[in-house]
């Protein structure tokens, strides 16, 4: 009887109140309402933007990217002058962003790994120094570090004029090859003359040879157990053949030294203050986070692993390389990707010190000279987004290649 | 039903957005204060004094407009803007007017859609260098490092000038005048370039002003003036005629000393119309009859404002030059108050 009653209740058909009170439908109802609210919110924002642009009498187009920029950019990795387009200026800015991001990612990794390992050192002083570094850089906004380092770079080193005269106030360092001034650091630039292609070719070939030797050494070790001196052979291969070719060919690759000419040094490579300040500040700041990740990764490998390896008679540095690090990497890599992302995005703080990155060109001068705020900022966001997604994709690919293979 | 409410709200918000641009005068009167965009600090043009009170040549324009609209020259909220934030601030409605030594150009007027309401300073771009650099002309600046404010017309003029003269330079982009001063004084750049008036004002703030010279070349025309958004002509008229009132007052001999006396009525009908004792000019603008009197009362006529802030007796020491009345051989020429 009861069963029949239940059945008849089920047959009453679908009532509207079930959407709210029936647990089978409730979650769907809530999701649909949330989706509608989201669409409505986006629609309102879009409508607001469109109606305000219309009220201000402005259209929405990216034609300005093809018009003449009219401004100069000091640091250019590709050819650019003020008669080229805003699109080209944007590209120059993007390359400057990529330059500081790549340099920063490399140095922050080196600094972070060293400091992270030192933080686990048995030596009390080394451990505490590393802790001071991490806490000082991690807990102060990176913008302050950028501005501080820039301020020091402008105020402390001598001005180019101090290098002039018979008895100058300042002299160049490293056998007259490097000039450290308050407008940046000038370093020698390599010059390529006839025959230099051969030297470069030999160098590339020796790098291939290093990898081939490592592969051979690994194979031999697996087969015979004999260990070859991979490091020393690699080091020799890296330097000796290229240097020999350079000497035999009569030094086709030369160096162009910076020289004081007119107002500034000319020749050589000019590393501008803004680049150096941004690079150092971003590396030290992000390096502090990397150090903590490295420390966490190493601590995550249980002590039993180290002890077991030691009891098998493996030497300490091999324990680190063969047992601890491969396991620690799996913990270290995912947060490293987000550190690299942060560094790349923080590079937009370059605006504060006049480094002409993407934000400085497209997001500041182009936006301001053309009055296309909406278009410039949307394009800027799209570029940063694709940059970040690319970094994530590469990072995730690498993470997948080193993670524990579960079969 | 809920949907119709939503779309109703949507339509209403769109209407508000559309109409907002045409009622700045009413907004300022309701708010009881004028929001005026100025520089982040350029002594003589706009900078806070020791008590935090804004003062300067551009500030005086803001105060005159506030006095004309609200009867109180102190009812101004000063909003500091940089060269690259000023237009966004004005276009978005964050400020009612911009008085920030901004150059009137074709593209700013037509493409960026702003309305320049007159010229309060006729200027041109110059170069400042240290005297001991031994440079006497801008044509000797090949290879120099130049500090330049981003987002300005001077940035574009600089590129044009060096290209036209076949010279190279290293631009150091900076955001504010204070930053430029810091970099220039630390010798991180050889040259600082901006409007000649700005150079004089910056130089006046140096401890050793005599060690710096402004080169003789003026490489551009920089007509500086206040501006408002396109489309709100009633508000544009208020700003335009407030500035004209200051200029006309000097021409007609109205000063802060004789203002009360003149306002009691004179034999000159133009003075009477300007000061509201005759005709209904104030009513036509939607302001009180004594609007111009209030505007002049704040800091005196154009000449008094000039002398008090940037004139020969101040540290900045600019002479009137092009900014003299047309009757004295300058370019200042207010249309008649009729």
Describe this structure in words.
The complex is a heterodimer of chains A (407) and B (338). Chain A has 407 residues and is mainly α. Chain A has a domain at 89-163 and 272-362 and 398-406: MetI-like (MetI-like fold). Chain A is built from 14 helices and seven strands. Chain A has helices at 2-10, 18-21, 23-55, 86-118, 124-138, 142-155, 173-176, 196-224, 230-248, 273-299, 303-311, 316-346, 358-370, 373-402, and strands at 179-181, 184-187, 189-192, 253-256, 259-261, 264-266, 269-272. Chain A has a three-stranded antiparallel beta sheet with strand order 1-2-7. In chain A, helix 6 crosses helix 10 and helix 12 packs antiparallel against helix 14. The longest helix of chain A is centred in the first third of the chain and has 33 residues, at 23-55. Chain A starts with a helix and ends in a 5-residue tail after the last helix. Residues 1-8 of chain A have low confidence and may be disordered. With 338 residues, chain B is of the alpha/beta class. Chain B has two domains: 27-120 and 225-328, Periplasmic binding protein-like II (D-Maltodextrin-Binding Protein, domain 2); 124-221, 3-Layer(aba) Sandwich (D-Maltodextrin-Binding Protein, domain 2). In chain B, 40% of the residues lie in helices and 16% in strands. Chain B has a five-stranded mixed beta sheet with strand order 10-9-11-8-12, sandwiched between helices. In chain B, helix 6 links the parallel strand 9 (144-149) and strand 10. The chains are: A mainly alpha (407), B alpha/beta (338). Chains A and B meet through helix 3 and helix 13 of A and helix 1, helix 4, helix 6 and strand 10 of B.
The tally of helices of chain B reads: 14
- Beta-sheet strand percentage of chain A? 5-15%
State the separation between the terminal residues of chain B, measured CA to CA: 56 Å
| Outline of chain A | globular
Binned strand content of chain B: 15-25%
The structural domain count of chain B equals: 2
From the N-terminal CA to the C-terminal CA of chain A, the straight-line distance is 54 Å
Low-confidence stretches of chain A: 1-8
Q: Provide the residue-averaged pLDDT of chain A.
A: 87
Q: Can you tell me the CATH architecture of the domain at 89-163 and 272-362 and 398-406 in chain A?
A: Orthogonal Bundle
Which series of helices and strands of chain A comes N to C?
A: HHHHHHHEEEHHEEEEHHHHH
Greatest interface: A-B, 45 and 49 residues
Any guess at the CATH architecture of the largest domain in chain B? 3-Layer(aba) Sandwich
Give the CATH class of the largest domain in chain B: Alpha Beta
Keywords (chain B): Signal, Transport
Protein name (chain B): Amino-acid ABC transporter-binding protein YhdW
GO biological process, one term (chain B): amino acid transport
Family (chain B): Belongs to the bacterial solute-binding protein 3 family.
């Amino acid at each position: 009887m009861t069963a029949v009653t239940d059945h008849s209740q089920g047959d009453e058909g679908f009532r509207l109140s079930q959407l709210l009170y029936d647990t089978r439908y409730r979650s769907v109802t809530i999701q649909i309402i949330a989706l509608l609210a989201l669409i409505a919110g986006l629609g309102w924002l879009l409508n607001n933007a469109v109606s305000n642009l219309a009220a201000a009498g402005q259209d929405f187009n990216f034609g300005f990217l093809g018009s003449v920029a009219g401004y100069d950019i000091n640091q250019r990795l590709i050819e650019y002058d003020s008669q080229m387009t805003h699109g080209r200026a944007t590209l120059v800015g993007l390359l400057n962003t990529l330059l500081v991001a790549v340099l920063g990612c490399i140095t922050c990794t080196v600094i972070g790994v060293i400091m992270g390992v030192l933080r686990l050192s048995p030596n009390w002083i080394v451990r505490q120094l590393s802790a001071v570094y991490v806490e000082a850089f991690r807990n102060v906004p990176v913008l302050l570090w950028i501005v501080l380092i820039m301020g020091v770079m402008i105020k402390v080193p001598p001005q180019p004029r101090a290098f002039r005269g018979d008895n100058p106030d300042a002299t160049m360092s490293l056998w007259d090859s490097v000039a450290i001034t308050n407008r940046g650091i000038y370093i020698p630039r390599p010059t390529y003359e006839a025959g230099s292609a051969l030297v470069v070719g030999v160098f590339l070939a020796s790098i291939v040879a290093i990898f081939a030797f490592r592969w051979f050494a690994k194979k031999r070790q697996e087969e015979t157990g004999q260990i070859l001196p991979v490091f020393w052979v690699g080091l020799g291969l890296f330097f000796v053949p290229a240097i020999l070719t350079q000497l035999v060919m009569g030094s086709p690759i030369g160096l162009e030294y910076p020289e004081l000419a007119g107002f500034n040094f000319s020749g050589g490579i000019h590393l501008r203050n803004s680049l150096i300040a941004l690079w150092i500040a971003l590396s030290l700041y992000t390096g502090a986070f990397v150090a903590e990740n490295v420390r966490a990764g190493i601590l995550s490998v249980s002590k039993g692993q180290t002890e077991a390896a030691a009891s098998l008679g493996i030497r300490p540095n091999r324990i680190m390389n063969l047992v601890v690090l491969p396991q620690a990497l799996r913990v270290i890599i995912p947060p490293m990707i987000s550190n690299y992302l942060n560094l790349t995005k923080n590079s937009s703080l370059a605006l504060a010190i006049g480094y002409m990155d993407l934000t400085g060109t497209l997001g500041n001068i182009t936006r301001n000279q053309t009055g296309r705020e909406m278009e410039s900022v949307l394009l800027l966001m799209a570029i940063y987004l694709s940059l970040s997604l690319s970094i994530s994709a590469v990072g995730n690919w690498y993470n997948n290649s080193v993670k524990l293979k579960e079969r | 039903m809920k949907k119709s409410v939503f779309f109703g709200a949507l339509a209403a918000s769109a209407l508000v957005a559309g109409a907002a641009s045409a009622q700045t005068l009413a907004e300022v009167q309701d708010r009881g204060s004028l929001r005026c965009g100025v520089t982040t600090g350029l002594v003589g043009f706009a900078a806070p004094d020791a008590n935090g009170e804004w003062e300067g040549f551009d500030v005086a324009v803001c105060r005159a407009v506030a006095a004309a609209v609200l009867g109180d020259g102190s009812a101004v909220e000063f909003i500091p803007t940089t060269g690259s934030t000023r237009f966004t601030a004005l276009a978005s409605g964050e400020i009612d007017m911009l008085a920030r030594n901004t150059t009137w150009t074709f593209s700013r007027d037509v493409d960026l859609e702003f309305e320049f309401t007159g010229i309060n300073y006729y200027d041109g771009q110059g170069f400042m260098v240290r005297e001991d650099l031994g440079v006497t002309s801008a044509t000797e600046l090949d290879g120099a490092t130049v500090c330049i404010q981003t987002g300005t017309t001077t940035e574009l003029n600089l590129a044009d000038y060096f290209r036209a003269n076949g010279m190279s330079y290293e631009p150091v982009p900076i955001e504010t005048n204070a930053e430029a001063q810091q970099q220039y004084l630390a010798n991180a750049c050889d040259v600082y370039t901006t409007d000649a008036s700005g150079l004089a004002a910056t130089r006046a703030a140096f401890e050793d002003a005599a060690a710096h010279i402004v080169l003789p070349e003026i490489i551009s025309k920089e007509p500086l003036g206040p501006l408002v958004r396109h489309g709100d002509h009633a508000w544009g008229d208020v700003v335009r005629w407030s500035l004209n009132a200051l200029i006309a007052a000097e021409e007609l001999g109205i000063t802060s000393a004789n203002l009360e006396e003149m306002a009691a009525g004179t034999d000159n009908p133009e003075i009477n119309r300007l000061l509201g004792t005759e005709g209904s000019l104030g009513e036509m603008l939607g302001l009180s009859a004594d609007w111009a009197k209030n505007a002049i009362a704040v800091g005196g006529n154009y000449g008094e404002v000039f002398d008090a802030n940037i004139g020969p007796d101040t540290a900045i020491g600019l002479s009137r030059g092009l900014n003299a009345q047309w009757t004295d051989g300058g370019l200042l020429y207010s249309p008649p108050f009729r």
